[in-house]
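Hi Y.,

Following your request, here is the sequence exactly as I used it, all 449 residues.
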Amino acid sequence: MTPPKPTPRPDKVSLWRYMKLFRKDILSAQPQRLYRAWMAEFRTPFFRSYLINQPELIETVLKKRPDDFPKSDRISEGLRPLLGDSVFLTNGETWKRQRRIIDPAFEGGRLKDTFAAMHAAGQAAVDRLQPQAGSVVECEEITSHIAADVIFRTLFSVPIEHEVAAQVFDKFHSYQREQPILNLAAFVPLPKWLPRLHSRRTRKNANEIRKLIQHLTAERAELIAQGQAPDDLATKIMTTRDPETGHGFDMHEMVDQVAIFFLAGHETSASALAWTLYLMAMYPEWQDRLAEEAAALDTPDFAVMSRLKLSRDVFREALRLYPPVPMMVREATCPERFRDREVLKGAQIVISPWHLHRQERLWDCPDAFDPTRWETENGKTCQRNVYIPFSAGARVCTGAGFAMIEGPLLLSMLLRHYRFELVEGQTPVPVAHLTVRSKDGIWLRVVER
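Below is the corresponding structure, written out as tokens. Let me know if you'd prefer a different format.
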């Protein structure tokens, strides 16, 4: 039994057909040949894009010359109503300044401080599931709730039940399901003065989410001024100054950053954990091994993470098969030559973790679930060169270390208390919304151990 993946489109379709497929779902809109291609060119009347799957090209774009390949504005078009000028969307000196302020909060030593909040969120999730034991549950809703709880506890020291946190979570749930990862501007370059084609509901939800985040941020600023703020991620970021300029984030900038922390730390984590639970239901022998390993949680402190090795390997493999962010888009700032092809200035360079993690020329058994692969020479080589669930190089996700604590910990806590089982006729179909989710949810039966 192989983990599910989307059925690819026919190799040749019209531009109009491709645009319709693309807007519906990025993954199934791509042809099968991309799982073997080192590079593929896509032409429209407005621009050219190149998907690159060759390790050397990816290293050039992400690691060796990142300033020559900034994040494409085409991506920001669909996300700017919510994220503003957050670190996820900016480029150049603005982005570098933002990272200088944000990165210290996520350094290894400081991540220890988030463990207690993560564990509390995990225990709350275990308790919430208890009344549903023996029934069929929709796992994406469950993991979204857990991930949002983690973010609010680690960022603002409040649980998901907090009045404002609960409202943010509810409105974001509506936002993420209706918002495609790319909108029309991915195909047609629009002048800056032209109104963007966001739905009224998308704009309304984004505005309401940002107002709620501004309320939390203003409250925290007041506590900081009074010397009464908790030592959490929000406080650390709001009190950090750029070492080069001496300035920190103003209120508007902080709202932008909190919005991306919530998107990156909640939406992506929820996706990854839900797919991991589905894989555990597919492979119950692995589920039982992780449940046994989770006995180490009898001593719930940060040191326990070093004893959750199987959980980490399983979570890493789930991120390979179902990377939450399936595609990244960069833009060539000068003419290039890739694989004997002329790449013009302004061309879009697409790096697809979805295809790269399943590249048939690189990985052994790329579509198979095999957490032991990380101990093989092939797995180690691929992990170094082409495993990029959190991107790579200068723009690697600030929260990568955070996620690799959160995922294995929550997975272990859930499997220690519950068994997750497949439901007949409920095979999830991966699609890309803001992240890789299931078309109709991930339905599993949860049984108390």
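Residues 103 and 316 are 23 Å apart (CA to CA).

Thanks again,
Q.
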